[in-house]
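Weekly modeling sync, notes
Attendees: S.R. (lead), two postdocs, one rotation student

Agenda item 3: backlog of single-chain predictions. S.R. asked that every request posted to the team notebook include the full sequence so nobody has to chase files. The rotation student volunteered to paste the first one in as an example of the format we agreed on. Action items at the bottom.

Example entry:
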Amino acid sequence: MTEGPLAAYRALTRAQTLRHDPAQELAAEKLQSLHNALRGYEPSSGQGGWRDMFGMRRRRESPPQGLYLFGGVGRGKSMLMDLFYESAPVQRKRRTHFHAFMLEVHDRWHRWRADRATAQGGNRNDDPMPFLARSMADTGWLLCFDEFHVVDVADAMILGRLFTALFDLGVVVVATSNWPPDDLYKDGLQRARFLPFIELLKERMDVLELDSGLDYRMARLRRHPVYHAPLGRAASRALAHAFDELTDSARGRADSLRVKGRTLPVPRAARGVAWFAYEDLCEQPLGAADYLAIAERYKTVIIDGVPRFNEAKRNQAKRFMTLIDALYEHRTKAVIAAETEPARLFDTESHAFELDRTVSRLMEMQSAEYLEAPHLT
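Predicted structure, as returned to the notebook:
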């Protein structure tokens, strides 16, 4: 992987692991250019080492232009980001989901204010931005963001100042997004104050649309069933195959969501796909807010081990129905392994109307029309 993302991409197409796509290859070439520019680059602001202590900072060096890669779902943005990140010739680098990054920013902001308020002579009106930018830059001066999107007014109001400070520290940013920069925070509150941030992104990052017209991952998913019954070895193999197909064989790792001040664990996730056991979702005291957070974050949710519901499991059945409603409303794709087919899944008289609706939605979520519909966030 030391040669860079372009060589890695071409190796995958030669091995027929990937189908050659001119738009993807162009993006790989752009990422290769950045890879080359990063060789030997080091932020001139330093990272608190001995050179800073003795005033021996390096001559100021202009950082390479970052890259903002946008396009529809399933075009290969995350896969290309992986190839770039794994081979990037940078000592301190970090890749994270943009939503998780902003949660961390707000957490550090609040902790800084609390510390300043309780410190001797602290002033709550001090500006936390230099501290925030430095602390985030210390985690990596190459920052790679998946799913760059802005919907929260609190995020929108601080992004311009935060990224100005990060860029001044020499941080290089690469981001993937479903939206072009000009559509970020569209129709949001006080959007006029957000527009300078959009111009900053376009100034400090090359912008490239990845638009091959094909959703490769969903095309793979449409070739296979998304509802598997009965439970057993065959259903488990089908879920594992779906995860591999939808993540380009990424290993996946634990993730988490913040919901109303609580942490919701996600056992395994990669490239917009989350894998849960049924017990993780419906045997726990979760509610609509939790399921909405899952549906918004992930484009596909895999659920293993759904049982047949009887009257003794009416509370779990209600949670399952709420979960399916949230996934359906966001057009989140669902790959499910269950004890039986949807029409025989509920053996209970409770929630009769919701039962019929859930069965109908489970059937529709297997259709080509649903699988081709874009994910709604």
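Discussion: group reviewed the output briefly. Residues 260 and 287 are 11 Å apart (CA to CA).
Action items: rotation student to repeat for the remaining queue; S.R. to check formatting next week.
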